[in-house]
Design a protein that fits this description.
By secondary structure, this protein is α/β, with parallel strands linked by helices. The chain has 24 helices and 8 strands. The chain has a 4-stranded parallel sheet with strand order 2-1-3-4, with helices on both faces. Strands 6-5-7-8 form a 4-stranded parallel sheet. The protein starts with 6 loop residues before the first helix and ends in a 7-residue tail after the last helix. Bound molecules: iron/sulfur cluster (2 copies).
Length: about 425
């Protein structure tokens, strides 16, 4: 694609990067064929190629974004399916992230939108505030039907697991032997502690000393994808400094993530800070040490085989941030099959379920359509449980099907001696 950035614009590293990305695009449109919003809406501007043109014009001409442009960019799920399909390796993720930051700076959203997005950025990454919000939501529950659509939709989300609360650290404080850090997450600390407990048991059974890292809480993806660039940047810097300290103090050999959305973000720290004189090395170390739990386990000695699980039929729902963001596709399936489960893949596995971080709250209509389609595939699969590697997908999809969900780590934990997770 031809671009016309001026020399002065290209002196800005962010625009220089956008220019390099744009120039790789040959406008073939292959990416449209796997874009969920293009398939659903059928408008060129709701597909990756159209959005790339919108972003090009926005950044090149330093335009104030119009409502129309913002609408089409907001409708993008950041599922990154287009990146898997693109034959020219166009890094759509970095382009749309730059566009979101630009929109947040230059476009004045209507007041309710601004407040709502601000509320999300100010609560979700903070476990204590999020717990308070959930408490208030529970109080509002009887009148939820009277609330505006987005609030109503947010209250409909159901936690996949809520049974236990983990204390601040894993019990294993021994400083000898090989060790990993398990990143506890922000929303997951509140709603998905069973996933963290199962992950700890599983890793310990594999011979690892596990340190649950409940601080820092959030990887920064929520603020980053909302276009809150300054907030996200502050959080990234703090995280890098804090996690490097944990790595060095505790002698950690890897940072394990069991929410694939967070994993995609953490693996991008090295790229985001590559030009930063003070943080480039540490950011690169954090990204290099980050492993999704399935990715990590598949490189270890195999988990024990449980012959009694053959009758348990599992459908695997591949989160976009896992398959497109981190290119982890076969490892979770192989681990589940090896452990003894009968595993099925779902049709149209590349398609997003509509969860996509805060997308299902901000774009409930499209998210519901995609969720229902995925849930229909789940219902037709005739399985006992759905495995996933990302809690927010599980929470979103639970609205549309009665088939239970469990994290891949919970199923592997069950197979190797842990409690049944569903
Ligand atoms: S598939 Fe890649 S090169 Fe083709 S239009 Fe999409 S982004 Fe551009
Ligand atoms: S990230 Fe997903 S929704 Fe956005 S343009 Fe790419 S395929 Fe479409």
């Amino acid at each position: 694609m031809r671009t016309e950035f001026t020399a002065a614009q290209l002196a800005d590293p962010a625009l220089d990067e956008a220019n390099s990305i744009l120039r790789k695009c040959v406008h073939c449109g292959f990416c449209n064929s796997t874009c969920p919003t293009f398939k659903l809406i059928g408008d060129e501007l709701d597909g990756p190629r159209g959005r790339i043109y919108l972003l090009k014009n926005l950044l090149e001409h330093d335009e104030t974004p119009s409502e129309k442009v913002v609408k089409h960019i907001d409708r993008c799920l950041s599922c990154l399916s287009c990146m898997t399909t693109c034959p020219s390796s166009v890094n759509y993720m970095h382009l749309v992230d730059a566009g979101r930051g630009y929109i947040e700076k230059k476009f004045k959203r209507p007041l309710p939108d601004r407040y709502f997005r601000h509320l999300l950025a100010m609560t979700l990454p903070h476990p204590d505030r999020f717990r308070l919000l959930l408490f208030l939501s529970a109080l509002l529950s009887p009148i939820r039907k009277l609330l505006p659509g987005r609030f109503h939709n947010a209250l409909e989300l159901r936690s996949p697991v809520t049974r236990t609360r983990i204390k601040s650290q894993a019990k294993n404080q021994d400083k000898t032997g090989k060790a990993v850090g398990l990143i506890a997450g922000c929303v997951q600390q509140v709603l998905g502690n069973d996933i963290n407990s199962a992950s700890i048991r599983l890793l310990e059974r594999q011979g690892w000393r596990v340190h649950l890292l409940s601080e820092p809480t959030c990887c920064g993806a929520i603020e980053h994808h909302l276009g809150k660039t300054a907030l996200a940047d502050k959080r990234f810097r703090q995280n890098i400094n804090d996690w490097i300290k944990h790595v060095d103090d505790l002698g950690l050999e890897a940072l394990i993530v069991n929410a694939s959305g967070c994993g995609t973000m953490l693996k991008d720290y090295g790229h985001l800070f590559r030009h930063d004189d003070t943080l480039a090395a540490d950011a690169g170390r954090i990204s290099g040490m980050c492993r999704d739990i399935a990715e990590f386990l598949s490189a270890q000695r195999p988990v024990a085989v449980n012959g009694g699980l053959k009758q348990v039929r599992v459908a695997y729902q591949s989160p976009c941030s896992m398959q497109h963001g981190q290119k982890i596709e076969t490892q979770p399936l192989d681990l589940l099959r090896h452990a003894g489960f009968t595993v099925k893949e779902l049709p149209e596995k590349y398609m997003c379920c509509g969860s996509a971080g805060t997308y299902n709250i901000l774009q409930p209509q499209i998210a519901t359509e995609l969720g229902k389609t995925k849930a229909a595939h789940i219902d037709q699969a005739n399985v006992d449980v759905v495995a996933s590697g990302n809690m927010s997908c599980m929470m979103h999809l639970r609205q549309f099907t009665d088939v239970p969900f469990a994290h891949t780590a919970e199923l592997l934990d069950w197979a190797t001696g842990g409690p049944k997770p569903f």
